[in-house]
């Protein structure tokens, strides 16, 4: 979407611009200071060496003088370069201003002019070394700056991806939730409306005569109510500021109470129901949510256990955590689908997508409840044999 593209672009550009600007200012400052220092050295050398032949210091190879006296040209201190007379004359011809810079045969000279009593003296300073140092520094700083921009750009891109990914995932989740909820609500609303229209089309019939249509409408309304309640539960559990009231509960007794409510249903479906609960296991949690968590997993196990199958529930406490396992025999879950079963509205059996009051939200709610308790729920399965859901709660 365009919104997330702009969002990602801002996350990418802002660090790049800020850090790039700081580096640019830093490097320009370093270069400017170095250049100013080199220029100051050259200016000082020229000022010290701006003299006439009788005052010329023995300045080695650094200071050179060209003196014009009555159309006569005298070259002082030029021996170090072994310039020919023609080359010396060429250098003299390049001096056309009071001060400036000239380049000759790979050498670079700064010069100033001093005139008095018909004499004109040009003092030259060989600043090739200083110039090369400044240029090398400039090229080095430019290279470091460009490399830094590439590195910073890469890091900014990674930062932009990591920063926008959770936001986009949350947005996509909400978008998918809205689409799935709309799809799930569409059928019951349509069926309920149709049934009510049938009742209204026969105003002379009694309630008993319209019972079939009224019960159908009620069933669909109950489905919608169940879906809305589950969505509200999801929304509540996903809130960052949500904190459930907790107290020290005997998990062993709580699970045993939940399992008792399922024994009759298991007996009717010829499902063997066994449990192994370590006694007097306590954990600080919310009673209602913990009951709901166990109920979701056991109800899910019954739903996918064939007649003649078995469901087992175990509770064990170790030094580090509390483990609650709900295992059922049956078809199992293919490995590629295990990672999806906790997604909202995901169902293993698409053929029953519209059946009953199951919308594929139960396991999503179970995971959020377990995480709100500081733990998590995971799934292990072997196709054709069993499926196990394990709740792990850390002991603080």
Describe this structure in words.
There is one protein chain. The chain is of the alpha+beta class and 396 residues long. It folds into two domains: 133 residues, no CATH class; 148 residues, Histidine kinase-like ATPase, C-terminal domain (Heat Shock Protein 90, 2-Layer Sandwich), CATH 3.30.565.10. The chain contains eight helices and twelve strands. The strands form three sheets. The protein has a five-stranded antiparallel sheet, with helices on both faces. A five-stranded mixed sheet has the order 7-9-10-12-11, with helices on one face. A two-stranded antiparallel sheet has the order 6-8. Helix 1 packs antiparallel against helix 3, helix 4 packs parallel to helix 8 and helix 6 runs antiparallel to helix 8.
């Amino acid at each position: 979407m365009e919104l997330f593209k702009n969002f990602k672009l801002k996350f990418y550009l802002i660090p790049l611009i800020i850090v790039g600007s700081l580096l640019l200012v830093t490097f320009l400052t370093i270069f400017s200071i170095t250049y100013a220092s080199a220029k100051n050295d050259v200016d000082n050398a020229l000022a010290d060496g701006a003299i006439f032949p009788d005052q010329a210091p023995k300045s080695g190879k650094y200071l050179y003088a060209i003196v014009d006296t009555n159309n006569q040209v005298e070259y002082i201190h030029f021996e170090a370069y072994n310039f020919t007379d023609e080359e010396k004359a060429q250098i003299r011809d390049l001096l056309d201003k009071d001060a400036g810079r000239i380049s000759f045969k790979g050498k670079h000279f700064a010069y100033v002019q001093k005139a008095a009593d018909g004499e004109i003296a040009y003092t030259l300073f060989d600043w090739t070394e200083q110039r090369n140092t400044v240029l090398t520094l400039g090229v080095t700083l430019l290279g470091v700056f460009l490399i830094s921009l590439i590195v910073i750009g890469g890091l900014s891109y990674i930062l932009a991806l990591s920063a926008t990914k959770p936001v986009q995932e949350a947005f996509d989740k909400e978008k998918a939730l809205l689409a799935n909820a709309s799809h799930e609500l569409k059928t019951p609303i349509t069926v309920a409306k149709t049934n009510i229209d049938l009742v209204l089309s026969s105003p002379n019939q009694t309630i008993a005569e319209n019972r079939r249509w009224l019960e159908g409408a009620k069933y669909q309304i109950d489905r919608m109510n169940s879906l809305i309640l589950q969505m509200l539960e999801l929304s509540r559990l996903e809130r960052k500021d949500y904190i459930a009231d907790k107290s020290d509960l005997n998990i062993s007794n709580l699970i045993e109470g939940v399992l008792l409510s399922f024994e009759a249903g298991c007996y009717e479906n010829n499902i063997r129901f066994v449990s192994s609960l370590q006694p007097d296991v306590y954990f600080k949690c919310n009673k209602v949510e913990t009951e709901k968590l166990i109920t979701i997993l056991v109800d899910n196990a019954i739903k996918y256990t064939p007649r003649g199958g078995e469901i087992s529930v175990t509770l064990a406490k170790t030094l580090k955590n509390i483990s609650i396992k709900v295992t059922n025999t049956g078809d199992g879950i293919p490995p590629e689908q295990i990672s999806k079963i906790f997604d909202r509205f995901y169902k293993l059996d698409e053929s029953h997508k519209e059946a009953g009051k199951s919308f594929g939200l139960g396991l999503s709610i179970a995971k959020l409840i377990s995480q709100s308790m500081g733990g998590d729920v995971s799934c292990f399965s072997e196709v054709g044999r069993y499926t196990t859901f394990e709740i792990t709660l850390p002991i603080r």
